[in-house]
């Protein structure tokens, strides 16, 4: 139906194209800065086209430009041109849609319009008894009145009498009118050569024939319009939605939908719903964090790590070859205090799609290569940090020495490098993904957006999460033991987790990436447009006594990028992945996401209301391809968190020790306890068994070390079952290499 409708509509427009070019009349500006009408004060401005006067250009080029403008303009719409008051080279063409044209295209686009008021009684709100309190969290009813509800039906010209038309000038809302105007302009042919037809305002914008095309804001965002017929919806949206003082208020979704269209309305409705759902997760996560912080000093196993008589006397094996030294377990005291909680031929299309898939796979392999490179960096710098940070000669780090461990220093620097690499690859791949999608020649705009969505998300999923998956499920799992360590690339000894586990490193990685991403996005979305507008206003400043019309004020704003909403969804979906996939290791993630989203809603609102031209309204029935992507992330999150608890954290070994090995017959404690867990979880290695390559160099200390201890978390259960021994004056069982 969609394709047939477009073909029929194109034929209608082609036959309406006049044989000779006609030019719209020019009028002087009438000094009404807030006017939304032609100079006659009757015909509403539905769209604005901006072009540069070609009087100084050569004749042939000028004639071509004028012919293209003229053929585009004469599509049954009425036009009026006005010269700029700031730059005499600029011409503003005001577009008006007459009633007959509106009716024609409302039927073509199947726009639903009211047929009669809704007389059905609505269900009373369960919060009506608390209205005296909840009213403060809703927009001001004096500014935003409740919309009247109607029964609607797709418009048909032949059945006008069935529609609820009180005023023809108000029957079609401004957003409907601008949407229909853009529909005409985007399909109007401007050049026909034989069987080749060129059409669309987009092509003319890309070719420089027109400099801009946009619908008008109805007023300034911070000042009410003085025009009688102006609804001042932009001013109301700013006051009750985009202004920072309204951050605690519910969003006026009906007015957002009415002013910006359904597509943007659905985005903010979804973002608001997602933010509400984060509230419960944030409460639970914050509770876990507070509980862990309050009880960190009472943790039995943490006390044993920090105790000079226990952790201070346990000598740990070196974590790299030759130059790394023995170290005391209590050097990781602070880390141990962190608690863990749970149009082409089919063949041609196949070729193009295959090339696109191959390109995507190449970039994914490039990401994996960068992860390997960062892993090699981890191994290389860990060697340096291990030889430097565990020496007693570093006086300048004395106040922070207990926090600056080799593992922590390696993790922080590697996370920062990983974030920089992620951002660089994102910028590069963004252009590649758009090029691939254009190369595939999708048939419709929906197909284009869905194809680009899949490519961008697949790439960013691997780009953002691969390092986190490595830390959560690969790091420290294949390290061997001191006599026969495992090497990466035959040269670098695989890195081990901190005795407190890898979760603290995973938390560090998530914190840096989430925080850095939020800061970077705000710079891109807010600061850059604001600076561009500031520079543009400075470069085009005029004497204060000059009156600037509404259309020229909007021209000084930034155009919203074609994929602006796409990037907003992508940002939130990537955040959703961080919140759900690794929440078991970082319970504060929902809290950070909630705080970020409370700002994100208002920042996005402020941005599109104050810094950008009014966008062309678009229809939408859902969030598109993002819905199955979110469902897939939610399903994957169940598996990843289960594996983090089972394989990455020490939760299961601790529970096994607490309920089984701390009491008879394996332990001599009368009650279940975590006492002795640290001693029990560390294996004993005879230093005489070191190979010549990995044996640490002798220090100047006279202390002779015959055995050292190594963390052997994965062999914990088998150690107790197959090699029970006692050591160190406790009933803890140890594994001997």
UniProtKB/TrEMBL annotation:
Keywords noted in UniProt: Cell membrane, Glycoprotein, Membrane, Transmembrane, Transmembrane helix
Q: Which residues form the Anoctamin dimerisation domain?
A: 37-253
What Pfam families does the database record attribute to this sequence?
Anoct_dimer, Anoctamin
Q: Name one GO molecular function term.
A: chloride channel activity
Residue spans crossing the bilayer: 267-293, 361-387, 408-429, 452-473, 572-595, 629-648
Question: Which biological process annotations from GO are given for this protein?
Answer: calcium activated phosphatidylcholine scrambling; calcium activated phosphatidylserine scrambling
Instruction: Give yes or no: UniProt keyword Cell membrane.
Output: yes
**Superkingdom per UniProt:** Eukaryota
UniProt cross-references to InterPro entries, sorted A to Z: Anoct_dimer, Anoctamin, Anoctamin_TM
GO CC annotations on file: plasma membrane
Where in the cell is the protein located? Cell membrane; Membrane
Q: Which residues form the Anoctamin transmembrane domain?
A: 256-305, 337-676
Question: PANTHER family recorded for this chain?
Answer: ANOCTAMIN, ANOCTAMIN-6
Task: Give the protein's recorded name.
Answer: Anoctamin
Q: Which organism is it from?
A: Lates calcarifer
